[in-house]
Amino acid sequence: MSDIHNVIIIGSGPAGLTSAIYTARANLKPLVFAGLEFGGQLMTTTEVENFPGFPEGIVGPELMQHMIKQAKRFGAEIVHQNVSKVDFSGEVKRVWVGADEYKARSVILATGASPRKLGLPSEQEFWGKGVSSCATCDGAFYRDKVVSVIGGGDSAMEEATFLTRFASKVYVIHRRGEFRASKIMQDRVLNNPKIQVIWNTEVLEVKGQDVVGSLRLKNTETGEESDLAVDGMFLAIGHIPNTKFLGDAVELDDQGYIVVKDKTHTSVEGVFVGGDVNDHRYRQAITAAGMGCMAAIDLERWLEEKGVEVDTTADTYTNPVPA
């Protein structure tokens, strides 16, 4: 495939699709590799109440479909395939989907991060039905209910403390006899009357009818099993950035997140980043979308500085896709 695109965007969550909207409106005709499972983490989210513009809330998959339609309206090409490898060593960036090679003057990496899971079949069954990895996103749904947080690091302490704003009781379930979180974060949890810590315990099964109703637990020291009635389970055992396919093409930190050198610029000139694949602090749809916008604007200005000719007279606008 000899055509050289102005920009290739890898990823189709809020960051990738916002980048697609902005670069398409700039007549850059972006090629977006959305992946076989497109839409990012919002595709497994039910009600989204904190994304601006939807006062009654919107389900995650519907929000992502809106973004895809909007990107397509302005001329973005969406390809539902996974990128298998890349080569950013030359002036022209090379991207492969299987045996097919694509070339571009610039690239935006927006592949996101996936929450670490326990690996239980029942965990997946109840995902979005009482099992979540984001207290900020879903905590308000558990007002006056009983919830659990799985983990022992700073993230788990932060999630548990946040959930006490809504829940009547919060269990922190940790497989060891001590937390690895910082002392100040531990103290907040241990001194909160709404929080009860269950030490040396792992979750064997998530149980319920249509939604989470209880957890089957096992004490790691005695082997004793028991059931704990809860309305929700929040995983706080970390995230895995989706960067394995990159190899050493760009600089990554020790956790595998893409390192930013200046705003949204990566360690490679002409390669930009947006969303959770760089952001391990906020991890929100709105912050990912904002970073996607920033990456698109930075990329557009970089192309201008490089003297890349962009056809601004081409009509990339089409009629909106019918709902």
UniProtKB/TrEMBL annotation:
Cellular-component GO terms for this entry: cytoplasm
InterPro entries in alphabetical order: FAD/NAD-bd_sf, FAD/NAD-binding_dom, Ferredoxin-NADP_redctase_2, Pyr_nucl-diS_OxRdtase_2_AS, Thioredox_Rdtase
Gene Ontology biological-process annotations: removal of superoxide radicals
Catalytic function, reaction form: [thioredoxin]-dithiol + NADP(+) = [thioredoxin]-disulfide + NADPH + H(+)
Family matches, as Gene3D superfamilies: FAD/NAD(P)-binding domain
Swiss-Prot/TrEMBL keywords: Disulfide bond, FAD, Flavoprotein, NADP, Oxidoreductase, Redox-active center
Domain (FAD/NAD(P)-binding): residue spans on this chain: 6-292
Cofactor(s) listed in the protein's UniProt record: FAD
EC number, UniProt record: 1.8.1.9
Pfam family, one: Pyr_redox_2
Bound cofactor: record note: Binds 1 FAD per subunit.
Enzyme class (EC, first level): oxidoreductase
UniProt-recorded Gene Ontology molecular function terms: thioredoxin-disulfide reductase (NADPH) activity
Subunit structure: Homodimer.
Family the entry assigns: Belongs to the class-II pyridine nucleotide-disulfide oxidoreductase family.
Protein name (database record): Thioredoxin reductase
Species of provenance: candidate division WS6 bacterium OLB20
